[in-house]
Amino acid sequence: xxxxxxxxxxxxxxxxxxxxxxxxxxxxxxxxxxxxxxxxxxxxxxxxxxxxxxxxxxxxxxxxxxxxxxxxxxxxxxxxxxxxxxxxxxxxxxxxxxxxxxxxxxxxxxxxxxxxxxxxxxxxxxxxxxxxxxxxxxxxxxxxxxxxxxxxxxxxxxxxxxxxxxxxxxxxxxxxxxxxxxxxxxxxxxxxxxxxxxxxxxxxxxxxxxxxxxxxxxxxxxxxxxxxxxxxxxxxxxxxxxxxxxxxxxxxxxxxxxxxxxxxxxxxxxxxxxxxxxxxxxxxxxxxxxxxxxxxxxxxxxxxxxxxxxxxxxxxxxxxxxxxxxxxxxxxxxxxxxxxxxxxxxxxxxxxxxxxxxxxxxxxxxxxxxxxxxxxxxxxxxxxxxxxxxxxxxxxxxxxxxxxxxxxxxxxxxxxxxxxxxxxxxxxxxxxxxxxxxxxxxx
Length: 443
Prior knowledge:
By secondary structure, the chain is mostly beta strands. It is 8% helix and 45% strand.
């Protein structure tokens, strides 16, 4: 066994998602200081939050830091997230959006919940059409870069069915993508400060139901969980097409918990679910007036713990949109479009407080599908839309001197292979070198 004992990734997940409610993490230090631990000890309710701020700079003399892969779009200081979360973690041996865990199946029904509110620039990505898109503070015409979102609000119900199951009802971050879109641990959504192309090409959240079930297994053997969901599309509470999207995910864990395989899928009607006036809803518009435009997106992620200090993960993604709005404009006729890519992630623990992570990306966006990736969301006309193949290399150091403070430094290089307009430096360059530093305080 390596010097840090049991596999660090499995251990951290098991600690953060304690199987029994009585083992749930205590409230944040600020709430405990003000009110003590009675709420957690008596009811299992945890109150905590975090503040994340960062600074970004690039090498090209412009303020543009490539909206293709980031939630922020300008150089300088950014308030990413100011968050408050109230939650109760129910008992269970399966975690919705995460997967199955070893242990006996609790025999009693248990009910938990999660309510998370976030203010900051990252919240622009997590707005929900029909809920927080029309808050006055979220008006995109006033030039304010920050938004306020009810990022999650769901019931989390454990049911002693089959090998154990969870039912999530309400508003929740997506269960898709390697860079899972919920705070686990906070702040959401990823180990890196910048974000992968595949993350930006997928949904951020859903309104609806997600049922996760652990299939019966023998102690000491591998574990499998299946998820099925019915949701109101991508980032929508009031999807105008009124069709439900279907989520179907399969999650497998090796007996020693060192190998994770996740196959995640969403399928539905993408017509009329993208809204320019609030910069919300789906980032993938369809041809105006179409009532049916099938959209399918799939992710396959394989994660492997190599030893107590190293983990690797590879993610493959593929998406397809019928009657894609942006591609149809460029082609002059109704056209379908697709996007796909892969990224390789390496996570290395230098010591108990210091992490070094790196990510290598390739993403094919030769078809014009995504408002953010093309730049259409930021007012660029069709002749300026960026398409092509994108490559990215990111490396970062993360230091946590204590559980309430995290400091990260990150360096990222992106290159675009395209005969069309550049994706960087306000459309003038096909590459960019970016440096960033961010500070997170947990309270």
